[in-house]
Specification:
alpha/beta, Rossmann fold, 7-stranded mixed beta sheet, two-stranded antiparallel ribbon, 6 helices, 9 strands
Length: 200
């Protein structure tokens, strides 16, 4: 049902559809919302955060154009659901979460599900990952008016970054390609995300 729904909403990439089919969303949804685990809607999780609706997860994953030999930097682990979907698509996923309870829960879930290509970090994702490291693909799962400089610096030349941009209640999901060091943006659709928190 989920794949048919996503196909009906315009998701076409076979690898993304397969990943959405493979990842058990109910494992990432709070116990009280299990009956809504496969509904196409965002759900609240701990620390005032949300697990994105399946369509948005699929749309972001498709826009990122992840190949099996690529690494992905994810800013905002949250429940770990998007992380797991990316792990089905990429060679390696490096993900950062600032809230310790979410970080620990996502780490345990991903381990229980057998993912060995996910590297989870606790910290300020607005600063990106370790200095000097760069990635061909970056996904930001929280909204900001612009891409933080440290994250942009860690995107490879020719790389793709997908993020919700905007400071209001409704943002624009945007795909950005780094060309000669400059951002080339494509707005994909309107969306709603929790804000990206910057600083300690």
């Amino acid at each position: 049902m989920l794949v048919e729904h996503l196909t009906g909403r315009g998701i076409r990439c076979p690898r993304v559809l397969a990943a959405m089919q493979q990842v058990p969303r109910h494992e990432f949804v709070p116990v009280g919302n299990q009956q809504l685990a496969y509904a196409d809607r965002a759900l609240g999780i701990d620390c005032g955060q949300t697990i994105s609706q399946p369509y948005i997860v699929a749309a972001m994953s498709e826009a990122l154009q992840v190949h099996a030999d690529l690494s992905v930097l994810e800013i905002g682990t949250g429940s770990g659901y998007q992380t797991a979907v990316l792990a089905e698509l990429a060679e390696k996923v490096v993900t950062i979460e600032r809230h310790r309870p979410l970080h620990e829960t996502a780490r345990n879930r991903c381990a229980q599900l057998g993912y060995q290509n996910i590297e989870l970090h606790l910290g300020d994702g607005s600063k990106g990952c370790a200095a000097g490291t760069s990635y061909p693909r970056i996904m930001i799962t929280a909204a900001g008016k612009e891409i933080p400089g440290p994250i942009w610096e860690q995107l490879d030349e020719g790389g793709i970054l997908v993020a919700p941009l905007g400071g209001g209640k409704v943002q624009q999901l945007t795909r950005i390609v780094k060309q000669q060091g400059e951002p080339v943006e494509q707005v994909l659709l309107n969306c709603r995300f929790v804000p990206l928190v910057t600083g300690d």
